[in-house]
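Input set for joint prediction.
Command: fold jointly, output tokens.
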Amino acid sequence: MTAYDELMAFQRETRALALIAGRLGWDQETVMPRGAARQRGEEMAAIESVLHARRIDPRLGDWLEKIDGPALDDTARANLRLIRRDYDRARKVPARLVTEIARTVSVAQGIWAQARAAEDVASFLPTLTRVLALKREKAAALAGDGDLYDALLDGYEPGATGAGLAGMFGRLRPRLAALRDRAMGADHQPGGLSGRFDEATQLELSRELAGAFGYDFERGRIDKAVHPFSSGSADDVRITTRTVPHDPFNCLYSTIHEVGHATYEQNIDATHALTPVGQGVSMGVHESQSRIFENQIGRSRAFAGHLFRRMTALFGEIGVADAEAFYGTVNRLAKGYIRTEADEVQYNLHVLLRFDLERDLVSGKLEVADLEEGWNTRFAADFGYAVDKPSNGVLQDVHWAVGLFGYFPTYTLGNVYAGCLHHALRRAEPDLDTQLDRGDISAATGWLRDNLQRHGGLREPRETIRHACGFAVSEAPLLDYLEAKFTEIYRL
Amino acid sequence: MTAYDELMAFQRETRALALIAGRLGWDQETVMPRGAARQRGEEMAAIESVLHARRIDPRLGDWLEKIDGPALDDTARANLRLIRRDYDRARKVPARLVTEIARTVSVAQGIWAQARAAEDVASFLPTLTRVLALKREKAAALAGDGDLYDALLDGYEPGATGAGLAGMFGRLRPRLAALRDRAMGADHQPGGLSGRFDEATQLELSRELAGAFGYDFERGRIDKAVHPFSSGSADDVRITTRTVPHDPFNCLYSTIHEVGHATYEQNIDATHALTPVGQGVSMGVHESQSRIFENQIGRSRAFAGHLFRRMTALFGEIGVADAEAFYGTVNRLAKGYIRTEADEVQYNLHVLLRFDLERDLVSGKLEVADLEEGWNTRFAADFGYAVDKPSNGVLQDVHWAVGLFGYFPTYTLGNVYAGCLHHALRRAEPDLDTQLDRGDISAATGWLRDNLQRHGGLREPRETIRHACGFAVSEAPLLDYLEAKFTEIYRL
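tokens >
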């Protein structure tokens, strides 16, 4: 065996163990007996400890040194690049800090949940202060002389920088806010759903949609869970969904969203399985797959027509007159405090608020003690009304409690990427609407598979999008698409 | 930390990883997508490789050397004894052989399944020859100058020897065969069930029975699988069951059987969790818990009365006149080729046949080429009729295909242990039948929990039984119980 072969054998085993750890997470959210929580904590700690030891195993350094990089093909070079990046990052963080962060955030999640339930920000602040301090320490270890926030962001979206995102987000905000204001002030307002949406039928239709969007049930399964998520890679990619009695869109669109994540993992070329290239390349690119499924395709006029016919066939009267009215209904803007419930226009405004606040927290410009006030002031400025309670404000998301500073912007980056991909997809498939109107999504899913998904992590995130689209990443296609779509729906 | 603390911390992590590997097995048999099989193989290999490395980790030797044994309490000494035994066994087997056995048996299982489906013994023999050779090589590495079969047996039932078991089994066989012949030749023969047994009601009743036998659903769950099994330990012990439309006993009694295994793991004192003492002490003792639940309690006259009333309440007419007739029905002897379907009297005759044949295979006295003839000759002698096809004979069990030489006798040993425990239980709980008749099993399950289950692996297997019973292990209580029970049922 060459050094490269040895390295890859080691990596395959590490990746298999990481998939096992991921499946433990799936198990915990879907089928685990309630009384098993404490034991599960020990099991997770054990496998994470094994994984961490492998990530900093000095043999990785030896192999990386021995391998003759230029002699390798593109795939091998990409694998090497990804391995080296992870190894360098892992080695920079002291073992003591890794353990301390793991221990702290596992407790912090419970404290956050209690604080949110009690609407008690103060009870959460000492914990958040501790988590932030640990993550800043980690960022300092990673960054060297560089920017702290960039060092954290790099763990989710390699190559992105806070300054670069701030520029892009600065161009998004005013046009999104203006579009929102015009639409919500318009005379014409789409109506909502009414009717009876029994759970079994919601789940049946969500499975039908999952299949239509290309989810391979032979290599996955759908279960119910409190929060929808996708988990796994290659031949075992499982998703969850949930049902809300009076809101079937919750089940249907969250399923479509998770199928976007899941098909990305399922559609990577089988030759890459269990290698670093054999997984979604970044959080942002992953989110682009879920968002283009959910929004640009799933909430298109053509597909909405198909969904209207399926829903009336399955549920009977749904309180919407026709396909055209239904297109408005699935795209309706509404006031609201909660990011995960936000519409396509306002969603990014929620993310941008968090991005600015967390950048200031990490840089030290904003104190934890001032976070709630900062949130509420910014929310009022961006949305035009005041936060009514902490669970609708600074306590709504779990991310900061579990130390995910640098994660939020990947949501909006995913939307920006989805805007680019949608622009390119429409150019490549001019007849797409004819197919979507009859529920045939195969041209869209096939284009994404062939141009993006199958390559996994072969290219860096932005390069992955550029390669698929044939043009550089920009926020312009997303903004143009949103303005055209909502101008028409709201008759602006 | 003392050397003992360090050793135990390491062991807890190893045990947590082993539980994860076990849960992967559960996942595979219950919820895994069909297309994930190959990837799952890589995942299992990865975690087994981690586990093997930990079992032979030289730090174990250092810690074991440093620890001052006599200064420790009973529990700590038992943990040390178990750790030392596993470490010694693991080190004796070369890594190459471990890998080779794992690779060979994973393929062998498929070849066996194909051969069984095709009724083609010859196509399986080269594989069996290879598996046997590897297991003999492993036995030789373990045994040193000792007996090969004993070395394998020791992996399932520490302390047992082939010669000791042969003596005990030699005393069992004639009395079991004589009892079988008298019962099956009697004028009075119990009848069978008839009726409609819908699947949902079978599962509902099996859950009710699981609860009555003490299964803690907060720390477990029941799913359907092709083969019933129990998996896990401590706070996450899951069982599976299956349903057969016209045979509700298959679901009900296999659930009771698995609950015996599961409650053993659930009822070990929580202070032992994730330590070597914190799991069932041997295959034989484990089987004793499932068999006393299933047979001595579950097929007792008193409990059969309760079950008759529950079944007629839930299923209506079941083709049996009254509780007394039903007691005969659940204990009915029948001709048959298949071990797993055998009644309480004949089951051990099936096991004894396999024990003698596998001992001769391991010692070299019997060639693989002569195995089928050996099986068929012995079966005709023990059962009085000829094997009609290989799937009813030498190809019926998976055990040898996957290298489990030395495992079969633990089934009968479990029955012998159950006989001892039942004798002691009846002495301790003279009013047991009054409770069983109303479906209250708590005195029996409580006695087993307090006298045996809670101690886990604190004592060696035979000593575990002796401690619970107050007398030494012997086959006599089992034989006396069977002869009394079936003499009465068959009016001999």
